[in-house]
Amino acid sequence: MRFSNYLVAVFLIVFGTGSSAFTLATSGRSVHNVSSDRTGVTPHTSTSTAFLPRIIGGGTGLQSSATESDAKTAAACVAISGENLALLYPRGREAIQSLIENDATIGAQTHVFSDWPSAGTDDELKIKLSEQIADLNESYPGGLKAYLSKARTLLKESADGVNPFTEYEALIPEGENLRYEETKEGNMSFGEAEDLGLENIGDAAFVLVAGGLGERLGYSGIKLSLETDLCTNQSYLEEYVRYIQALQHSVLSKSGKSVQIPLAIMTSGDTDEQTRVLLKKNSNFGMEESQISIICQDKVPALKDGSAGLAMKESWTIETKPHGHGDVHHLLLKSGLVDKWLVEGKRHVVFIQDTNALVVNGVLPTLGVSVDRGFHMNSICIPRLAGEAAGAITKLAHKSDPNKSLVINVEYNQLDPLLLGQGDRKGDVADPSSGFSPFPGNANNLVLELASYAKTLKGEDEGVVVEFVNPKYKDETRTEFKKPTRLECMMQDFPKLLQKEMGKEANVGFTMLDRWLTFSPAKNSLEAGVESCKNGSTAPGTMSSAESEKYIQNQRKLRHAGVSLPVTEEDDLVLVSGITVTPGPRIILAPSFSVSQKETKEKIQGGSITEKSSLILEGGGLIVKNLDLDGALIIRTGPSCEVTVDGLKVQNKGWVLEENSQNSDLPESVAIRGYTMRRYETKEIIIEDPGRYFIGEDGVVNKLD
């Protein structure tokens, strides 16, 4: 179907014409509908004029009584025969008509509906395509019209090389620097911030962004189901649930107030069913059914060229791609959860990612900083190396309008050019006093103040954050792509909406925490990690390195509490299956044992642990003093147990990592680590009956009452 026919249709609709000209586009067509149990519409047979603007008074012209629906149908009939239109369900027909009408003067989508075979051929596929278009139209705020319009604008700006920061100057933002092992560096100490966070955590809600599969890790399942470590074999999802439960218990024990901290999980079409199955299979890991909400994000259409033409996966299917975790804001508004949390008296929302188990160490201190400084949005940050391929929290000061200034994440490939164009023009370089970039590294975990968050979500954009495109061009013409692209959005770009709705009143900051304490994402395959380690990296981002870093942060916590034990430094790392990991000890401090620095120091005192050792401590009423460990030890206590361990000596063969054989047929979850854990000997103490207990040097459990 030629593009000129679109213009004929538009002319007919807008200006009217004689019946003979009108017949040119419609003659020779009869229309029939297929039955539909989907819509309940009664099938009928009619001539094609049933879908055309009404002709009054002998057909001398189009009259003012023609409806908008009639006009859309006229345009559609130029591109698709009336018989084919009649095949479609009403919502699919409307979506096709709208797509054709909005493309009439552009011609970017003709490949989607041109050359459809006559009715009777591929009818089910036509219906399938139209219903997919309807789904895509309904899932995006403003519909496909808004999506494609934004795409054309952004793709043109990309092709033209438009610099989004021309009117801005990059400045270092205001925030708080907290060091776990130091008393005070800024306005607050780590312990002070954590204590204030704990006082307010009962009035918080959690949002877990989990829309991705583990394909990049070499795992076909959902990332939330992966085991964080081989000592406990707990999945990421269980880890986060146990942490929230421990926070609830801590609030109860300190204030006597029983609280329920809600958890919302954003899934995608790829992860939704598996996430629900994981929760059901494990009885929500003990969390109340009413406490967990699942919101599922949709994918968006892929785009094949600079005109925002829809990319076809096959003849009758539009290719779709993930839109990005920025969808979470609009979904929270749409689901009604934000209003529900406000009614329940919640005051903050904590956003965390799916495979960074160490983030839980940063939640309380960051919340404490948010309360202390009145931040509407607070980003959990880590020290960033100059030039590191990681975003940086930056204050963008507008050169002419202070109301347009904002604090936001700027990607590394944008930060350096921005800095090269201002001040000393040195670019993204290190601060000589610290050795790090003065701009905090963005870890993509957030704490938002709920009232301002709700107000912003209810603004003009309804939580749809500003999008971007990142096409990979075939050549210098910058019109054709190597592969389809799409609009993307990131949850950390929310300050753009805050600035729009609140102007200079928006208070956005950061909390800088130790990298070893809060940041160890699992995102890369074993093979990619091995190559990274060969090139000198000690942070390859694999499942094995994430597990290792989990043990190391607990080593440092125990050292800070006064325990004598080896703490792995960079030079101490050993290669296991090509990945640098700690030689030990492997320490797990369950959230039920401790959720804060103060609690850790109160619950474990003195003692020594050897490098070969493995230790798991779990239980709110557990106190361990003067432990002498050379091997593997597990102590688990129930919720109503008060257990004091003093002077316990344990020596056994313990646990050892063994590299996987190249010829072994192992499950994906095991293979992606490169090793298994061989448990030779273990001292295990499990106490579940309520009461007070004492355990001495010999390991005998003595019940005191």
Describe the structure using short key phrases.
alpha/beta; 705 residues; 22 helices; single chain; 32% helix; globular
Written overview of the protein:
The chain is α/β, with parallel strands linked by helices and about 700 residues long. The strands form eleven sheets. An eight-stranded mixed beta sheet has the order 4-19-14-17-13-5-6-7, sandwiched between helices. Helix 20 (about 545-560) packs across helix 21 (about 595-605). It is globular. The chain starts with a helix and ends with a strand. Residues about 1-65 have low confidence and may be disordered.
Count the DSSP helices: 22
SSE class = alpha/beta
- Please bin the fraction of helical residues: 25-40%
Task: Give the strand order of the largest sheet, numbering strands 1, 2, ... along the chain.
Answer: 4-19-14-17-13-5-6-7
The major sheet is characterized as: 8 strands, mixed
Radius of gyration: 30 Å
- Measured by DSSP, the beta-strand proportion falls in 15-25%
Mean pLDDT: 88
| Shape label | globular
Extract low-pLDDT stretches. Answer: 1-66
Task: Give a count of the beta strands, DSSP E runs of length 2 or more.
Answer: 35
Distance from N terminus to C terminus (CA atoms, Å) equals 88 Å
